[in-house]
Amino acid sequence: MYPILVTGAAGFIGAKTTEFLLKKNTSPVVAIDNLNDYYSPELKTHRLESLKKFSHFKFFEGDVENLSFLEELFKRHPFSIVYHLAARAGVRYSEQNPHVYFTTNINGTLNLLECMRRHGTEKLILASTSSLYAGLPLPFTEDLPVNTPISPYATSKKGAESLAFTYHHLYNIDVSILRYFTVYGPAGRPDMSPYRFIQWIDQGLPIQLYGD
Fold it and tell me: Which residue among the candidates 153, 171, 180, 184 is catalytic per the annotation?
């Protein structure tokens, strides 16, 4: 059985995706994450702990921005599919630190696509974002032209999508892109609105609203 690669596996979506893959398949799942401190690394470690019970699970701490790390990983594992879920997320923080969003979300995606091309990995599932629809008329539909991103975060994810299309066109890599809206659940990302609302209510604080 060819192994599966999941990037960003310590994130909320990454950890749940990895869990589903491990439960449904006997294929080895290789997971990577850089365990950065955008929010509590302890929460990320907690998610990974629940995956270690699976014998066909392997975790490596590493960054998609590190091309030599990825090259070594692809040399050792003939991946059949890549679930690329690693990313810098968050609209407001991207306005404060746009550079890290571009190095992770665009350069990191380029590094993965290059490794896939060189090593013959044929399938990519790419996590994108609903932020690409911001500023467009409602109701949103998948075929809207998302060519006017209004945050560095959305721009970086649009860049990742464009790279994926280019590698599909040039090298026939099969690409599926998922534009997630607000995703939440147990051990979810603590800066997402459901958790923030619950915290403010619990603390008796006014809820901060943005927009209308």
Answer: 153
